[in-house]
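User: C-alpha cells in, sequence out, please.
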C-alpha cells in the first residue's frame, strides 16, 4: 500500500501526524505557561508590594529610633538624621501608592502617611521645646547659678576678714547649701524630668529666699551690694526654672500623647499591610502550584502519546524508505570502489525510489561507457571519439575536451622535443667549445704567469743595476768635488800642475769609462721599460677578458704602464746628461794634451779647466739625481710586478673554476640530451591518428 505513495507524501503524512500531536502538547504547554506567567506576575507584584512596605517600615523604624536618641541625648545630629530620613520616606510612600495593587493596602498606606505627618509635626514641637530647654539652661540657669555661687564666695571672704560675723557666715553657708541643692535637683530634672525633682528644686530656692532675707538684716553696706546681686540672679534663676518646667512638661506631653502613640500605631498599620500581602501570597502560591502540576501531568500524558505514535510512524515509513535507499547506497559504494557491474532491481516502484533505481541503472551504463573510453586513453589510444549524452553531460564534455587537449598537447610536446633535441645538440657543441676555450684560457694565463715571473726577475736585475748606477753617480760626484778642489789649488800655484794634469787625465779616463758603463745600464733599463709597457698592454687585454674578476688587475696594469713611461722619460734625460758628460770628457782630454805641450800657458788653461770641472760637477750632480729617480722607479716597478703576479694568480684560479664549470655544464647538457631522447621515445607511443 505504501508503494503507491510518493516519498514526499509519506514524509508529509508522518510529519502531519507528529505536528498534530505536538500541536496538542504545545497548546497545553502554552496554556499552562500563560496561567503560570499570569500567576507569577501577580506573585511578583505581591513581592514588590512586600518589599516597598518593608522599606517604608525600615525607614519609619529608623526615624523613630533617631527621635528617641534625640530625646535621650539632645544631640542635634539625631534630629538632622531624622529630617533626612523623612525626606526619603515621603517619596517612597508616593511611589508605593502608585505601585500597590490592593486598594486596602493603599488605604492603609494613606493612613500611615497622615499619621506620619502628625508625628512629624509633633516631633517639630518636641524639638522646639528641647531647644527652648537647652537655651534656658545654657543662657540663664547656668550663668545665674554660677553668679550666685561666686557672689556668696565674695561675701564669705569679706566676712572672714573681720570678727564677730559667725551669724552671717552661718546664713551664708546655709544659703550656699540651698543653692547647690537647688541646682542639683534642677540638673536631675533636666535629665529625668520627674516632678519630684522640680518640686525639690523650687523648695530649695524658697529656703534660699529666706536665707537672703535674714542676711539682708545683718550684712553691712559693702556686702549688701553683693547680696542685691545674688537676689537679682535668684529672681532670674527661679523664673527660668518655672519656664524650664513648662517647656519640659509640654515636651513630655507631646512625647507621651503623640510620639509614643503615633510611632507604634504607624508600625502596626505597616505591619498589617505587610500581613495582607503575605496572606494574598499564601492564597496565590498553592493555586499556582496546583495549576502547574496539572499542566505538567497533561504534558507528560500527551507527550508520551506523541512519542509512541511518532515512533510508529517513523518506523513504518522510514523502513519503507531506508531499505531501498540502503541498496542504492551499497551499490554506490561498490561503484566508488571500481565495481561497475552494479544494478538496482526494484525498478517497478511508482515512487521516487523506483525512479531513483531506474536513474541509477542508467548512470551505471553511462559510467561503463566512459570507463571503456578512459581505458583506451590509458592505453595511449587517442583516436577514441567521445560524444556527450546531452548539454548537461559535464563528464562527457570534460572527457572529450581532455582527449582533444591530450592530442594537441602530445603534438606540441613532440615538436618541442624535436626542437629541444636540436637545441641540446647545439648547446652540447657550444659547451665543448667553451670547455676548450676555458682550457686554452687557463693555459694562456699559466704562460702569462710564467712571463710575469721572468719580468719580475728582470725587474729585480734592473733594480740592482739602478742601485749600481746610483753608486757610480755618487762616486762621480765625489770625483767632481775633488776636481773642483784641484782647480782651486791650481789657481794658487802651478808647481804641481804636471802632477795634477796627470791626475786629471786619469780621472777623466775613469769618468769616460764610468759614463760608458752608465750608457750600457741605461740601454738595459730602456729595454726593460719597453717590455713593461708591452706587458701592461697584454695584462690589460687579459684583464678585460677576465671580466669582473680582472678589474683589479686592470688598475695594476695601468700603474705598470705609467711606471714604464716614467722610466723611459728618466732614461732620455740620463742619455742627454751622458752626452754632455762625454762632450765634457773630450774637451778635458784635449785640454790635458794642450796643457802638456804648453805649460807656460798653464795659468790660463788652469782657469779654463776649473770652469770645465765646475760644469762637469753640475752635470754629474744631475746624473746622480737621475740615477736616484731610476732606482726609485725600479723599486716601484718591482712592487707593481708583485701585484701583477698576485692578480695573475687570481685570474688563474678563476680560469680553473671556469674550466670546471664548463665541464659540469657539458655533463649536464649530455644528461639533458639523454632525457630529451627518452621523452621523444615516450611521446611516440601515443596514437594520434
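Assistant: Sequence out:
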Amino acid at each position: 500500500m505504501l508503494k503507491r505513495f510518493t516519498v514526499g507524501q509519506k514524509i508529509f503524512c508522518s510529519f502531519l501526524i507528529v505536528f498534530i500531536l505536538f500541536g496538542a502538547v504545545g497548546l497545553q504547554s502554552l496554556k499552562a505557561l500563560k496561567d503560570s506567567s499570569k500567576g507569577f506576575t501577580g506573585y511578583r507584584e505581591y513581592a514588590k508590594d512586600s518589599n516597598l512596605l518593608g522599606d517604608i517600615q525600615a525607614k519609619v523604624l529608623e526615624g523613630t529610633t533617631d527621635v528617641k536618641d534625640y530625646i535621650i541625648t539632645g544631640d542635634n545630629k539625631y534630629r538632622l538624621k531624622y529630617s533626612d530620613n523623612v525626606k526619603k520616606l515621603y517619596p517612597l510612600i508616593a511611589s508605593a501608592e502608585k505601585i500597590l495593587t490592593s486598594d486596602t493596602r493603599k488605604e492603609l498606606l494613606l493612613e500611615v502617611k497622615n499619621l506620619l505627618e502628625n508625628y512629624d509635626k509633633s516631633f517639630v514641637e518636641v524639638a522646639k521645646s528641647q531647644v527652648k530647654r537647652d537655651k534656658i539652661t545654657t543662657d540663664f540657669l547656668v550663668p545665674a547659678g554660677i553668679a550666685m555661687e561666686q557672689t556668696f564666695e565674695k561675701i564669705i571672704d569679706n566676712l572672714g576678714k573681720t570678727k564677730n560675723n559667725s551669724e552671717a557666715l552661718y546664713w551664708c553657708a546655709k544659703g550656699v547649701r540651698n543653692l547647690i541643692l537647688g541646682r542639683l535637683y534642677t540638673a536631675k530634672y533636666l535629665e529625668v524630668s520627674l516632678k519630684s525633682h522640680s518640686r525639690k528644686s523650687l523648695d530649695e530656692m524658697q529656703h534660699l529666699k529666706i536665707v537672703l532675707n535674714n542676711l539682708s538684716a545683718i550684712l553691712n553696706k559693702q556686702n549688701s551690694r553683693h547680696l542685691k546681686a545674688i537676689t537679682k540672679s535668684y529672681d532670674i534663676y527661679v523664673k527660668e526654672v518655672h519656664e524650664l518646667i513648662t517647656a519640659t512638661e509640654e515636651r513630655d506631653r507631646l512625647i507621651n500623647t503623640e510620639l509614643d502613640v503615633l510611632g507604634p500605631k504607624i508600625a502596626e498599620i505597616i505591619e498589617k499591610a505587610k500581613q495582607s500581602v503575605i496572606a494574598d501570597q499564601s492564597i496565590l502560591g498553592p493555586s499556582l502550584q496546583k495549576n502547574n502540576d496539572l499542566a505538567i501531568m497533561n504534558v507528560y500524558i500527551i507527550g508520551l502519546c506523541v512519542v509512541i505514535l511518532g515512533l510508529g510512524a517513523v518506523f513504518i515509513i522510514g523502513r519503507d524508505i531506508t531499505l531501498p535507499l540502503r541498496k542504492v547506497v551499497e551499490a554506490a559504494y561498490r561503484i566508488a570502489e571500481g565495481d561497475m557491474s552494479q544494478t538496482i532491481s526494484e525498478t517497478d516502484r511508482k515512487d521516487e525510489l523506483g525512479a531513483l533505481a531506474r536513474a541509477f541503472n542508467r548512470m551505471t551504463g553511462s559510467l561503463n561507457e566512459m570507463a571503456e573510453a578512459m581505458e583506451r586513453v590509458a592505453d595511449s589510444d587517442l583516436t577514441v571519439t567521445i560524444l556527450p549524452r546531452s548539454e548537461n553531460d559535464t563528464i562527457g564534455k570534460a572527457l572529450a575536451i581532455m582527449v582533444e587537449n591530450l592530442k594537441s598537447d602530445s603534438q606540441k610536446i613532440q615538436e618541442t622535443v624535436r626542437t629541444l633535441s636540436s637545441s641540446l645538440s647545439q648547446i652540447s657543441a657550444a659547451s665543448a667549445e667553451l670547455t676548450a676555450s676555458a682550457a686554452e684560457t687557463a693555459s694562456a694565463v699559466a704562460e702569462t704567469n710564467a712571463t710575469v715571473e721572468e719580468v719580475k726577475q728582470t725587474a729585480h736585475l734592473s733594480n740592482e743595476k739602478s742601485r749600481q748606477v746610483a753608486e757610480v753617480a755618487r762616486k762621480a760626484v765625489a770625483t767632481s768635488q775633488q776636481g773642483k778642489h784641484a782647480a782651486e789649488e791650481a789657481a794658487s800655484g802651478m808647481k804641481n800642475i804636471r802632477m795634477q794634469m796627470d791626475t786629471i787625465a786619469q780621472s777623466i779616463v775613469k769618468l769616460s769609462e764610468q759614463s760608458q758603463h752608465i750608457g750600457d745600464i741605461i740601454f738595459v733599463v730602456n729595454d726593460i721599460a719597453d717590455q713593461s709597457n708591452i706587458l701592461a698592454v697584454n695584462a690589460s687585454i687579459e684583464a678585460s677578458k677576465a671580466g669582473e674578476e680582472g678589474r683589479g688587475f686592470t688598475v695594476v696594469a695601468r700603474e705598470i704602464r705609467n711606471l714604464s713611461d716614467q722610466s723611459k722619460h728618466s732614461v732620455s734625460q740620463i742619455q742627454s746628461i751622458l752626452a754632455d758628460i762625454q762632450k765634457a770628457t773630450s774637451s778635458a782630454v784635449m785640454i790635458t794634451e794642450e796643457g802638456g805641450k804648453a805649460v807656460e800657458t798653464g795659468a790660463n788653461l788652469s782657469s779654463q779647466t776649473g770652469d770645465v770641472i765646475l760644469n762637469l760637477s753640475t752635470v754629474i750632480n744631475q746624473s746622480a739625481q737621475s740615477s736616484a729617480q731610476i732606482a726609485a722607479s725600479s723599486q716601484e716597478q718591482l712592487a707593481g710586478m708583485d701585484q701583477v703576479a698576485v692578480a695573475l694568480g687570481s685570474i688563474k684560479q678563476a680560469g680553473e673554476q671556469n674550466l670546471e664549470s664548463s665541464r659540469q655544464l657539458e655533463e649536464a647538457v649530455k644528461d639533458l640530451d639523454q632525457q630529451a631522447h627518452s621523452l621523444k621515445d615516450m611521446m611516440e607511443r601515443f596514437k594520434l591518428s
